[in-house]
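Hi there, hope your week has been kind to you so far. Thanks so much in advance, here it is.
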Amino acid sequence: MIVRRLSMMVWTLCMTLGCGGDEEAPAPPPFEEFDPPASGEGELSHPRWIEFEGAEMGLSYLQGGGAWMIRHQEAGWTTPTRVARQARGPVPMIQRGSQLYAVVDDGEVVGVYVRRGDTFGSSVVLDGARSTEQVAWGRRGGDVFAAWIGQFAGMAPMLLTRDPQVGRALNDPDDRLDLCSGLAATRSGPPLLVYRDRDPMEIHDLSWLSAARDSTAFDQRGHVAQDGWQRPPCAFGDPVQPGPSVDALLGEGGSKTVVGWSTAVGSEQGHTLQLAFGTHPASAAPIFAAPIHLAHDSDPRLSVKLADAGNAVVLRPDGRRWVLQLVTETGERTDPKPVLRSTGAVHVDLRVRDGVAYVAMVSHGRLRVTRQRLSALGDPQPAPSPQAPPNRIRLGDDLPTYAPVRVSGGEAPVHDGETPTLLVFWASWCAPCREELDVMRALQVQHGEGLRIVAVAVDEDRSALDAFLAAQPTPLPFDLRLDPTPPPAFGAPPVPAAFLISEGRVVASARGAALEGLGPQIARRVGRP
Protein backbone atom coordinates (compact mmCIF):
# COMPACT_ATOMS: atom_id res chain seq x y z
CA MET A 1 0.00 0.00 0.00
CA ILE A 2 1.34 3.40 -0.98
CA VAL A 3 1.53 5.79 1.97
CA ARG A 4 2.41 9.46 1.99
CA ARG A 5 6.04 9.58 2.96
CA LEU A 6 8.95 11.49 1.50
CA SER A 7 11.91 9.46 0.33
CA MET A 8 15.21 10.60 -1.07
CA MET A 9 16.26 8.42 -4.01
CA VAL A 10 19.72 7.93 -5.43
CA TRP A 11 20.86 6.16 -8.57
CA THR A 12 24.33 5.91 -10.12
CA LEU A 13 25.54 5.82 -13.68
CA CYS A 14 28.85 4.09 -14.34
CA MET A 15 30.89 5.51 -17.18
CA THR A 16 32.92 3.08 -19.29
CA LEU A 17 34.65 5.74 -21.37
CA GLY A 18 37.66 7.75 -20.33
CA CYS A 19 37.35 10.95 -18.35
CA GLY A 20 37.76 14.39 -19.82
CA GLY A 21 39.49 17.27 -18.12
CA ASP A 22 42.71 17.69 -20.10
CA GLU A 23 41.79 20.99 -21.73
CA GLU A 24 43.51 24.22 -20.79
CA ALA A 25 41.27 26.91 -19.33
CA PRO A 26 40.29 29.37 -22.07
CA ALA A 27 41.04 33.00 -21.36
CA PRO A 28 37.94 34.92 -20.28
CA PRO A 29 36.70 36.88 -23.30
CA PRO A 30 36.09 40.61 -23.06
CA PHE A 31 32.93 41.50 -21.19
CA GLU A 32 31.36 43.19 -24.18
CA GLU A 33 31.56 40.00 -26.24
CA PHE A 34 30.32 37.55 -23.63
CA ASP A 35 26.57 37.45 -24.29
CA PRO A 36 25.67 33.93 -25.53
CA PRO A 37 23.38 33.49 -28.51
CA ALA A 38 19.79 32.43 -27.91
CA SER A 39 18.14 29.50 -29.65
CA GLY A 40 15.32 31.40 -31.35
CA GLU A 41 12.00 32.93 -30.45
CA GLY A 42 10.30 32.68 -27.07
CA GLU A 43 10.87 33.74 -23.49
CA LEU A 44 14.26 32.89 -21.96
CA SER A 45 14.62 31.56 -18.42
CA HIS A 46 16.54 29.32 -16.00
CA PRO A 47 20.17 29.52 -17.18
CA ARG A 48 22.29 26.89 -15.43
CA TRP A 49 26.02 26.20 -15.72
CA ILE A 50 26.82 22.72 -17.02
CA GLU A 51 29.06 20.62 -14.74
CA PHE A 52 31.90 19.83 -17.14
CA GLU A 53 34.87 17.82 -15.87
CA GLY A 54 37.45 20.10 -17.42
CA ALA A 55 37.75 23.81 -18.06
CA GLU A 56 35.06 23.99 -20.73
CA MET A 57 32.10 26.26 -20.08
CA GLY A 58 28.50 25.76 -21.10
CA LEU A 59 24.95 26.68 -20.19
CA SER A 60 21.55 25.04 -20.27
CA TYR A 61 18.45 27.22 -20.42
CA LEU A 62 14.80 27.25 -21.42
CA GLN A 63 13.36 29.01 -24.46
CA GLY A 64 10.20 28.51 -26.49
CA GLY A 65 8.94 25.79 -24.15
CA GLY A 66 12.01 23.56 -24.65
CA ALA A 67 15.46 23.00 -23.13
CA TRP A 68 18.67 24.06 -24.90
CA MET A 69 22.41 24.04 -24.26
CA ILE A 70 25.37 26.04 -25.58
CA ARG A 71 29.12 25.68 -25.02
CA HIS A 72 31.87 28.26 -24.94
CA GLN A 73 35.08 27.33 -26.74
CA GLU A 74 38.13 29.25 -27.92
CA ALA A 75 36.27 30.41 -31.02
CA GLY A 76 33.33 31.64 -28.97
CA TRP A 77 29.86 30.32 -28.26
CA THR A 78 28.60 27.33 -30.21
CA THR A 79 25.24 27.10 -31.94
CA PRO A 80 22.51 26.13 -29.43
CA THR A 81 21.67 22.40 -29.23
CA ARG A 82 18.21 21.18 -28.30
CA VAL A 83 18.09 19.01 -25.17
CA ALA A 84 14.32 18.45 -24.91
CA ARG A 85 11.31 19.73 -26.87
CA GLN A 86 9.26 20.22 -23.70
CA ALA A 87 10.75 21.37 -20.41
CA ARG A 88 10.02 23.46 -17.38
CA GLY A 89 12.26 24.58 -14.55
CA PRO A 90 16.07 24.51 -14.58
CA VAL A 91 17.87 21.71 -16.45
CA PRO A 92 20.89 20.50 -14.39
CA MET A 93 23.54 18.88 -16.62
CA ILE A 94 26.73 16.98 -15.81
CA GLN A 95 29.53 15.44 -17.87
CA ARG A 96 31.32 12.13 -17.38
CA GLY A 97 33.88 11.23 -20.01
CA SER A 98 32.34 11.92 -23.41
CA GLN A 99 28.78 11.68 -22.11
CA LEU A 100 26.44 14.46 -21.04
CA TYR A 101 23.45 13.88 -18.76
CA ALA A 102 20.54 16.24 -18.18
CA VAL A 103 17.61 16.20 -15.76
CA VAL A 104 14.44 17.38 -17.51
CA ASP A 105 10.91 18.01 -16.28
CA ASP A 106 8.75 17.61 -19.38
CA GLY A 107 5.54 18.56 -17.58
CA GLU A 108 4.55 14.97 -16.87
CA VAL A 109 7.62 13.26 -15.35
CA VAL A 110 11.12 14.20 -14.27
CA GLY A 111 13.77 12.08 -15.95
CA VAL A 112 17.35 11.81 -17.12
CA TYR A 113 18.21 12.59 -20.74
CA VAL A 114 21.47 11.20 -22.16
CA ARG A 115 23.29 12.53 -25.20
CA ARG A 116 23.72 9.88 -27.86
CA GLY A 117 25.69 11.28 -30.77
CA ASP A 118 24.41 14.77 -31.44
CA THR A 119 20.98 14.36 -29.83
CA PHE A 120 19.56 13.78 -26.38
CA GLY A 121 17.09 11.04 -25.53
CA SER A 122 15.15 10.07 -22.41
CA SER A 123 16.85 7.31 -20.38
CA VAL A 124 15.58 6.95 -16.80
CA VAL A 125 12.48 8.34 -15.05
CA LEU A 126 13.11 9.55 -11.49
CA ASP A 127 10.01 8.03 -9.92
CA GLY A 128 8.21 10.40 -7.57
CA ALA A 129 10.34 13.45 -8.40
CA ARG A 130 8.19 16.48 -9.13
CA SER A 131 10.73 19.23 -9.85
CA THR A 132 14.26 19.47 -11.17
CA GLU A 133 14.89 21.88 -8.28
CA GLN A 134 14.73 18.81 -6.03
CA VAL A 135 17.34 16.88 -8.02
CA ALA A 136 21.08 17.15 -7.38
CA TRP A 137 24.02 15.73 -9.33
CA GLY A 138 27.18 14.41 -7.73
CA ARG A 139 30.28 12.35 -8.52
CA ARG A 140 31.65 9.44 -6.58
CA GLY A 141 34.77 7.72 -7.82
CA GLY A 142 34.07 6.66 -11.39
CA ASP A 143 30.32 7.14 -11.04
CA VAL A 144 27.85 9.95 -11.50
CA PHE A 145 24.86 9.89 -9.17
CA ALA A 146 21.61 11.81 -9.01
CA ALA A 147 19.72 12.30 -5.77
CA TRP A 148 16.16 13.50 -5.61
CA ILE A 149 13.29 14.00 -3.21
CA GLY A 150 10.26 11.88 -4.00
CA GLN A 151 7.34 10.17 -2.29
CA PHE A 152 7.30 6.38 -1.87
CA ALA A 153 6.69 3.61 0.66
CA GLY A 154 8.74 0.70 1.96
CA MET A 155 12.13 1.92 0.75
CA ALA A 156 15.31 0.45 2.28
CA PRO A 157 18.66 2.25 2.55
CA MET A 158 20.14 2.81 -0.91
CA LEU A 159 22.95 0.59 -2.25
CA LEU A 160 25.32 1.87 -4.93
CA THR A 161 25.15 -0.15 -8.14
CA ARG A 162 26.91 -0.08 -11.48
CA ASP A 163 23.71 -0.20 -13.49
CA PRO A 164 21.81 2.86 -14.80
CA GLN A 165 18.83 2.17 -12.59
CA VAL A 166 17.03 3.63 -9.63
CA GLY A 167 18.59 2.83 -6.28
CA ARG A 168 16.97 2.44 -2.89
CA ALA A 169 15.77 5.30 -0.70
CA LEU A 170 18.38 6.94 1.48
CA ASN A 171 16.23 7.83 4.44
CA ASP A 172 14.95 5.47 7.11
CA PRO A 173 11.17 4.86 7.20
CA ASP A 174 10.71 7.09 10.25
CA ASP A 175 12.62 10.04 8.78
CA ARG A 176 10.70 13.13 7.74
CA LEU A 177 11.97 15.34 4.96
CA ASP A 178 10.62 18.68 3.84
CA LEU A 179 8.56 17.92 0.74
CA CYS A 180 9.04 21.49 -0.54
CA SER A 181 12.77 21.80 0.14
CA GLY A 182 15.39 22.07 -2.55
CA LEU A 183 18.33 19.67 -2.53
CA ALA A 184 22.04 20.20 -3.11
CA ALA A 185 25.04 17.86 -3.53
CA THR A 186 28.80 18.31 -3.66
CA ARG A 187 30.53 17.59 -6.99
CA SER A 188 33.91 16.51 -5.56
CA GLY A 189 35.28 14.82 -2.49
CA PRO A 190 33.19 12.55 -0.27
CA PRO A 191 29.54 12.75 -1.46
CA LEU A 192 27.37 15.08 0.61
CA LEU A 193 23.65 15.85 0.26
CA VAL A 194 22.17 18.92 1.99
CA TYR A 195 18.43 19.49 2.50
CA ARG A 196 15.87 20.54 5.12
CA ASP A 197 14.38 17.89 7.36
CA ARG A 198 11.10 18.01 9.27
CA ASP A 199 10.11 16.96 12.79
CA PRO A 200 6.64 16.38 14.30
CA MET A 201 6.46 20.04 15.38
CA GLU A 202 7.06 21.19 11.78
CA ILE A 203 10.56 22.47 12.56
CA HIS A 204 12.72 22.27 9.44
CA ASP A 205 16.44 22.22 10.27
CA LEU A 206 19.23 22.07 7.71
CA SER A 207 20.55 18.49 7.50
CA TRP A 208 23.08 16.41 5.59
CA LEU A 209 23.47 12.83 4.41
CA SER A 210 26.81 11.39 3.39
CA ALA A 211 28.67 8.23 2.47
CA ALA A 212 32.14 7.46 3.73
CA ARG A 213 34.80 6.59 1.16
CA ASP A 214 34.51 2.80 1.63
CA SER A 215 30.78 2.68 2.35
CA THR A 216 28.18 1.43 -0.12
CA ALA A 217 25.37 3.54 1.33
CA PHE A 218 24.62 7.07 2.49
CA ASP A 219 24.63 5.94 6.11
CA GLN A 220 25.98 9.07 7.86
CA ARG A 221 23.69 11.92 8.81
CA GLY A 222 23.68 15.07 10.87
CA HIS A 223 22.84 18.79 10.93
CA VAL A 224 24.53 21.68 9.20
CA ALA A 225 22.54 24.10 11.38
CA GLN A 226 19.57 23.77 13.69
CA ASP A 227 17.92 27.14 13.23
CA GLY A 228 14.48 26.03 14.44
CA TRP A 229 12.62 27.27 11.36
CA GLN A 230 8.98 26.37 11.96
CA ARG A 231 6.55 26.65 9.07
CA PRO A 232 3.35 25.02 7.84
CA PRO A 233 3.60 21.48 6.42
CA CYS A 234 4.05 21.24 2.68
CA ALA A 235 1.60 19.42 0.45
CA PHE A 236 2.85 17.56 -2.62
CA GLY A 237 1.42 20.18 -4.99
CA ASP A 238 2.89 23.21 -3.21
CA PRO A 239 5.74 25.12 -4.89
CA VAL A 240 9.32 24.10 -4.17
CA GLN A 241 11.15 26.59 -1.96
CA PRO A 242 14.71 27.70 -2.77
CA GLY A 243 17.02 25.12 -1.26
CA PRO A 244 20.57 25.29 0.07
CA SER A 245 23.68 25.77 -2.04
CA VAL A 246 26.79 23.66 -1.43
CA ASP A 247 30.31 23.39 -2.82
CA ALA A 248 33.47 21.48 -1.95
CA LEU A 249 37.18 21.58 -2.76
CA LEU A 250 39.01 18.27 -2.65
CA GLY A 251 42.23 18.24 -0.66
CA GLU A 252 44.54 15.75 0.94
CA GLY A 253 42.52 13.39 3.14
CA GLY A 254 39.12 14.91 2.40
CA SER A 255 37.48 18.12 1.32
CA LYS A 256 36.61 21.60 2.49
CA THR A 257 32.91 22.40 2.23
CA VAL A 258 30.70 25.47 2.32
CA VAL A 259 26.90 25.56 2.56
CA GLY A 260 24.71 28.63 2.01
CA TRP A 261 21.02 28.88 2.87
CA SER A 262 18.18 31.18 3.85
CA THR A 263 15.93 31.06 6.89
CA ALA A 264 12.98 33.08 8.11
CA VAL A 265 14.18 32.79 11.72
CA GLY A 266 15.44 36.06 13.18
CA SER A 267 14.52 38.29 10.26
CA GLU A 268 11.91 41.00 10.08
CA GLN A 269 12.74 41.58 6.40
CA GLY A 270 11.70 38.19 5.07
CA HIS A 271 14.82 36.00 5.10
CA THR A 272 18.21 35.76 6.75
CA LEU A 273 20.99 34.61 4.41
CA GLN A 274 23.70 32.52 6.07
CA LEU A 275 26.60 30.20 5.29
CA ALA A 276 28.73 27.70 7.19
CA PHE A 277 32.16 26.23 6.45
CA GLY A 278 32.92 22.59 7.11
CA THR A 279 35.58 19.92 6.78
CA HIS A 280 34.74 16.50 5.39
CA PRO A 281 37.40 13.80 5.97
CA ALA A 282 37.38 10.98 3.43
CA SER A 283 36.52 8.34 6.05
CA ALA A 284 34.55 10.33 8.62
CA ALA A 285 31.49 12.52 9.00
CA PRO A 286 31.63 16.21 8.07
CA ILE A 287 32.00 18.84 10.78
CA PHE A 288 30.46 22.29 10.32
CA ALA A 289 31.37 25.51 12.10
CA ALA A 290 28.82 27.98 13.46
CA PRO A 291 26.75 29.81 10.84
CA ILE A 292 27.96 33.15 9.49
CA HIS A 293 25.34 35.85 9.00
CA LEU A 294 25.40 37.44 5.55
CA ALA A 295 22.38 39.71 5.12
CA HIS A 296 18.62 40.12 5.36
CA ASP A 297 16.59 40.24 2.16
CA SER A 298 13.09 39.56 0.93
CA ASP A 299 14.56 37.18 -1.70
CA PRO A 300 15.64 33.82 -0.18
CA ARG A 301 17.97 32.74 -3.02
CA LEU A 302 21.75 32.63 -2.90
CA SER A 303 24.60 30.63 -4.40
CA VAL A 304 27.98 29.81 -2.85
CA LYS A 305 31.19 28.46 -4.38
CA LEU A 306 34.67 27.89 -2.97
CA ALA A 307 37.60 29.73 -4.49
CA ASP A 308 41.01 28.08 -4.70
CA ALA A 309 42.13 30.02 -1.62
CA GLY A 310 39.30 28.42 0.39
CA ASN A 311 37.18 31.58 0.68
CA ALA A 312 33.49 31.45 -0.17
CA VAL A 313 32.26 33.34 -3.22
CA VAL A 314 28.68 34.41 -2.55
CA LEU A 315 26.13 35.51 -5.13
CA ARG A 316 23.12 36.95 -3.36
CA PRO A 317 20.27 39.41 -3.87
CA ASP A 318 20.46 42.95 -2.62
CA GLY A 319 17.15 44.57 -3.33
CA ARG A 320 16.46 44.35 -7.09
CA ARG A 321 20.09 43.72 -8.03
CA TRP A 322 22.57 40.88 -7.41
CA VAL A 323 25.93 41.25 -5.68
CA LEU A 324 29.14 39.24 -5.34
CA GLN A 325 31.06 38.97 -2.10
CA LEU A 326 34.04 37.06 -0.70
CA VAL A 327 33.65 35.60 2.81
CA THR A 328 36.37 33.91 4.89
CA GLU A 329 36.02 31.15 7.48
CA THR A 330 36.32 33.74 10.24
CA GLY A 331 33.46 35.81 8.82
CA GLU A 332 35.56 38.55 7.26
CA ARG A 333 34.12 39.74 3.96
CA THR A 334 34.48 42.16 1.11
CA ASP A 335 31.95 44.86 0.41
CA PRO A 336 29.13 43.60 -1.85
CA LYS A 337 29.94 44.36 -5.50
CA PRO A 338 26.94 44.73 -7.85
CA VAL A 339 26.84 42.32 -10.77
CA LEU A 340 26.71 44.31 -14.01
CA ARG A 341 23.30 44.43 -15.71
CA SER A 342 21.71 42.31 -12.97
CA THR A 343 18.95 44.73 -11.97
CA GLY A 344 15.66 42.90 -12.29
CA ALA A 345 17.29 39.56 -13.20
CA VAL A 346 15.09 36.70 -11.98
CA HIS A 347 17.13 33.58 -12.80
CA VAL A 348 20.88 33.59 -12.08
CA ASP A 349 23.63 30.99 -11.63
CA LEU A 350 27.23 31.19 -10.39
CA ARG A 351 30.41 29.49 -11.63
CA VAL A 352 33.91 30.05 -10.19
CA ARG A 353 37.09 28.91 -11.88
CA ASP A 354 40.72 30.06 -11.99
CA GLY A 355 40.11 33.17 -9.93
CA VAL A 356 37.12 34.37 -11.97
CA ALA A 357 33.42 34.41 -11.02
CA TYR A 358 30.99 33.95 -13.92
CA VAL A 359 27.33 34.88 -13.45
CA ALA A 360 24.76 33.65 -15.97
CA MET A 361 21.39 35.38 -15.98
CA VAL A 362 18.38 36.39 -18.00
CA SER A 363 18.17 40.17 -17.85
CA HIS A 364 15.83 42.38 -19.87
CA GLY A 365 14.86 39.43 -22.06
CA ARG A 366 18.43 38.47 -22.99
CA LEU A 367 20.72 35.63 -21.93
CA ARG A 368 23.79 37.27 -20.42
CA VAL A 369 27.05 36.25 -18.76
CA THR A 370 29.19 38.61 -16.72
CA ARG A 371 32.62 37.88 -15.33
CA GLN A 372 34.44 39.32 -12.34
CA ARG A 373 37.99 38.57 -11.25
CA LEU A 374 37.91 37.68 -7.57
CA SER A 375 40.97 39.86 -6.93
CA ALA A 376 38.88 42.87 -7.97
CA LEU A 377 36.40 42.24 -5.14
CA GLY A 378 38.99 43.53 -2.66
CA ASP A 379 40.40 42.17 0.58
CA PRO A 380 37.97 40.72 3.14
CA GLN A 381 37.53 42.92 6.22
CA PRO A 382 36.02 42.21 9.65
CA ALA A 383 32.24 42.08 9.49
CA PRO A 384 30.23 44.83 11.18
CA SER A 385 28.90 43.93 14.59
CA PRO A 386 25.61 42.06 14.20
CA GLN A 387 22.50 43.51 15.71
CA ALA A 388 21.85 42.27 19.21
CA PRO A 389 19.12 39.64 19.39
CA PRO A 390 15.82 40.80 20.83
CA ASN A 391 15.43 40.51 24.60
CA ARG A 392 13.36 37.46 25.44
CA ILE A 393 10.80 37.44 28.19
CA ARG A 394 12.09 35.76 31.34
CA LEU A 395 10.24 34.50 34.38
CA GLY A 396 9.42 37.37 36.69
CA ASP A 397 9.41 39.97 33.89
CA ASP A 398 6.50 42.33 33.51
CA LEU A 399 4.27 41.44 30.57
CA PRO A 400 4.86 43.97 27.78
CA THR A 401 1.85 45.77 26.39
CA TYR A 402 0.30 43.38 23.89
CA ALA A 403 -3.14 43.63 22.29
CA PRO A 404 -3.43 41.39 19.19
CA VAL A 405 -6.64 41.60 17.20
CA ARG A 406 -9.49 39.27 18.09
CA VAL A 407 -10.56 36.78 15.44
CA SER A 408 -14.07 38.14 15.90
CA GLY A 409 -12.80 41.73 15.53
CA GLY A 410 -11.50 44.42 17.84
CA GLU A 411 -8.44 44.69 20.04
CA ALA A 412 -7.89 44.37 23.80
CA PRO A 413 -4.89 43.70 26.08
CA VAL A 414 -4.29 40.01 26.68
CA HIS A 415 -4.14 40.53 30.48
CA ASP A 416 -6.38 42.68 32.67
CA GLY A 417 -3.83 42.86 35.50
CA GLU A 418 -5.88 40.69 37.84
CA THR A 419 -7.23 37.44 36.39
CA PRO A 420 -4.53 34.75 35.91
CA THR A 421 -4.04 34.48 32.16
CA LEU A 422 -2.69 31.70 30.01
CA LEU A 423 -1.28 33.19 26.78
CA VAL A 424 -0.75 30.53 24.13
CA PHE A 425 0.75 30.97 20.65
CA TRP A 426 -0.40 28.33 18.17
CA ALA A 427 -1.24 27.71 14.49
CA SER A 428 -3.93 25.76 12.70
CA TRP A 429 -1.28 23.93 10.62
CA CYS A 430 0.72 22.82 13.69
CA ALA A 431 -0.16 19.25 14.74
CA PRO A 432 1.11 19.57 18.36
CA CYS A 433 -0.82 22.84 18.64
CA ARG A 434 -4.05 21.12 17.69
CA GLU A 435 -3.46 18.58 20.45
CA GLU A 436 -2.85 21.42 22.91
CA LEU A 437 -6.27 22.87 22.10
CA ASP A 438 -7.83 19.88 23.87
CA VAL A 439 -5.67 20.59 26.93
CA MET A 440 -6.76 24.22 26.82
CA ARG A 441 -10.41 23.19 26.63
CA ALA A 442 -9.97 21.01 29.71
CA LEU A 443 -8.20 23.80 31.63
CA GLN A 444 -10.94 26.29 30.80
CA VAL A 445 -13.64 23.87 31.94
CA GLN A 446 -11.71 23.08 35.12
CA HIS A 447 -11.06 26.67 36.18
CA GLY A 448 -13.97 28.54 34.60
CA GLU A 449 -13.87 32.32 35.08
CA GLY A 450 -10.88 31.95 37.41
CA LEU A 451 -8.60 31.52 34.39
CA ARG A 452 -8.48 33.55 31.23
CA ILE A 453 -7.04 31.76 28.17
CA VAL A 454 -5.91 33.85 25.22
CA ALA A 455 -4.98 31.76 22.17
CA VAL A 456 -3.02 33.75 19.56
CA ALA A 457 -2.86 32.10 16.12
CA VAL A 458 0.24 32.93 14.10
CA ASP A 459 -1.37 31.78 10.83
CA GLU A 460 -0.53 33.89 7.79
CA ASP A 461 -3.47 32.44 5.85
CA ARG A 462 -6.63 33.82 7.49
CA SER A 463 -8.90 31.69 5.30
CA ALA A 464 -7.15 28.49 6.46
CA LEU A 465 -7.58 29.53 10.09
CA ASP A 466 -11.28 30.34 9.58
CA ALA A 467 -11.82 26.95 7.90
CA PHE A 468 -10.10 25.17 10.79
CA LEU A 469 -12.23 26.98 13.39
CA ALA A 470 -15.43 26.32 11.43
CA ALA A 471 -14.61 22.60 11.36
CA GLN A 472 -14.48 22.34 15.17
CA PRO A 473 -17.34 20.25 16.60
CA THR A 474 -17.95 22.95 19.23
CA PRO A 475 -16.61 26.52 19.39
CA LEU A 476 -13.31 26.93 21.22
CA PRO A 477 -14.22 28.32 24.68
CA PHE A 478 -11.48 30.95 24.98
CA ASP A 479 -10.33 34.28 23.63
CA LEU A 480 -9.10 33.75 20.06
CA ARG A 481 -6.65 36.25 18.60
CA LEU A 482 -4.64 36.53 15.36
CA ASP A 483 -1.07 37.81 14.98
CA PRO A 484 1.13 36.35 12.20
CA THR A 485 4.17 38.27 13.53
CA PRO A 486 4.18 38.30 17.35
CA PRO A 487 6.69 40.56 19.14
CA PRO A 488 10.20 38.98 19.17
CA ALA A 489 10.20 39.09 22.98
CA PHE A 490 7.86 36.08 23.03
CA GLY A 491 10.15 34.00 20.85
CA ALA A 492 7.22 32.64 18.86
CA PRO A 493 7.21 30.98 16.46
CA PRO A 494 8.22 28.20 17.12
CA VAL A 495 4.82 27.14 18.33
CA PRO A 496 3.21 26.02 20.53
CA ALA A 497 4.49 28.40 23.19
CA ALA A 498 2.64 29.25 26.41
CA PHE A 499 3.08 31.91 29.10
CA LEU A 500 1.27 32.00 32.46
CA ILE A 501 0.67 35.59 33.60
CA SER A 502 -0.35 36.64 37.10
CA GLU A 503 -0.64 40.18 38.43
CA GLY A 504 1.04 41.54 35.32
CA ARG A 505 4.12 39.30 35.49
CA VAL A 506 5.18 36.17 33.60
CA VAL A 507 5.35 33.44 36.24
CA ALA A 508 5.70 30.29 34.11
CA SER A 509 6.20 29.24 30.50
CA ALA A 510 6.24 26.12 28.35
CA ARG A 511 7.58 25.32 24.89
CA GLY A 512 6.35 22.55 22.64
CA ALA A 513 3.58 20.17 23.59
CA ALA A 514 4.12 20.70 27.33
CA LEU A 515 1.04 22.67 28.37
CA GLU A 516 -0.18 19.98 30.78
CA GLY A 517 2.98 20.55 32.80
CA LEU A 518 1.70 24.02 33.72
CA GLY A 519 -1.42 22.54 35.34
CA PRO A 520 -0.17 22.62 38.97
CA GLN A 521 1.10 26.20 38.66
CA ILE A 522 -2.17 27.33 37.08
CA ALA A 523 -4.10 25.73 39.93
CA ARG A 524 -2.00 27.56 42.54
CA ARG A 525 -2.52 30.92 40.84
CA VAL A 526 -6.24 30.37 40.38
CA GLY A 527 -6.55 29.07 43.93
CA ARG A 528 -8.62 26.09 42.86
CA PRO A 529 -7.65 22.37 42.89
The CA atoms of residues 168 and 258 lie 27 Å apart. Residues 431-447 form the longest helix (17 residues). The chain is about 5% helix and 40% strand. The helical segments are 431-447, 462-470, 519-526.
